[in-house]
């Protein structure tokens, strides 16, 4: 078992992940492994559009390694058309992820599904939250550690009229003592 898997297993023992009837997941190995650890008795619904941003030539490199690269600086300061060399543009990423979330939420509303979990990558989580969450915050403000995410409340009227949902808590929850209220991981 990898160190990341061991850490996630420990988080599962120390905290509470919500019980849900359906889990949606990126097809990439790390997310599938995460879903298996958090929801061992469930078969996730694989959504290809939930894969991480395609960083092209920047893939596998840190921001520190790329800080002197002029193309990296241009990409960071660019708009929706900015893209790493041979990678996906910011606009393409937003459209792909946005369409996936819209389909998931529309499916939930049509089937009366009130709870689900989405296991995906940090950049995808930040993108989803910056596009759809209230309060509206810039993408970096939605960064969460591995194994963590958000509970959101989807109100059909708010979703239908504004394509927004409410961010109400971070996940996983802390296991509360009997005398204390349940709290959340910070």
Helices, strands, pairings?
Layout: H1 3-14, E1 15-16, E2 23-25, H2 29-38, E3 45-46, H3 63-66, H4 70-77, H5 90-111, E4 117-119, H6 122-132, E5 133-134, E6 149-153, H7 156-162, E7 165-171, E8 173-174, E9 183-184
Parallel strand pairs: 2-3, 2-4, 5-7
Antiparallel strand pairs: 1-8, 6-7, 8-9
Would you summarize the structure shown here?
The chain folds into 2 domains: 3-53 and 96-184, Phosphoglycerate mutase-like (Rossmann fold); 55-87, no CATH class. Helices cover 40% and strands 15% of the residues.
Key descriptive features of the protein:
single chain, 186 residues, alpha/beta, Rossmann fold, 2 domains, three-stranded antiparallel sheet, 7 helices, 40% helix, globular
Shape: globular
The biggest beta sheet, please?
Answer: 3 strands, antiparallel
Low-confidence runs of at least 5 consecutive residues: none
Number of helices: 7
What's the architecture of the largest domain, going by CATH? 3-Layer(aba) Sandwich
| Percent strand | 15-25%
Number of strands: 9
CATH class of the largest domain: Alpha Beta
- Evaluate the radius of gyration: 17 Å
Task: Please describe what this structure looks like.
It is globular, with a radius of gyration of 17 Å. The protein has 7 helices and 9 strands; from the N terminus they run H-E-E-H-E-H-H-H-E-H-E-E-H-E-E-E. The protein has about 190 residues and is of the alpha/beta class. Helix 1 packs parallel to helix 2 and helix 5 crosses helix 6. The protein folds into 2 domains: about 140 residues, Rossmann fold (3-Layer(aba) Sandwich); about 35 residues, no CATH class. The strands form 3 sheets. It has a 3-stranded antiparallel beta sheet with strand order 1-8-9.
């Amino acid at each position: 078992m990898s160190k990341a898997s061991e850490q996630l297993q420990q988080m599962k023992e120390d905290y509470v992940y919500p019980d849900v009837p359906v889990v949606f997941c990126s097809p990439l190995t790390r997310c599938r492994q995460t879903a298996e650890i958090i929801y061992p008795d469930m078969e996730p619904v694989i959504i290809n559009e939930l894969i991480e941003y395609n960083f092209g030539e920047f893939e596998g490199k840190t921001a520190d390694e790329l800080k002197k690269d002029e193309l990296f600086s241009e990409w960071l300061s660019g708009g929706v058309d900015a893209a790493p060399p041979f990678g996906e543009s910011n606009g393409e990423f937003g459209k792909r992820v946005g369409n996936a979330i819209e389909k998931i939420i529309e499916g939930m509303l049509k089937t009366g599904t009130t709870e689900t979990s989405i296991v995906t990558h940090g950049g995808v989580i930040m993108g989803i939250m910056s596009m759809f969450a209230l309060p509206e915050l810039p993408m970096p403000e939605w960064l969460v550690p591995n194994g963590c995410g958000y509970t959101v409340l989807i109100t059909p009227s708010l979703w239908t009229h504004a394509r927004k949902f409410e961010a109400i808590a971070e996940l996983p929850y802390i296991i509360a003592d009997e005398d204390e209220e349940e709290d959340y991981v910070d």
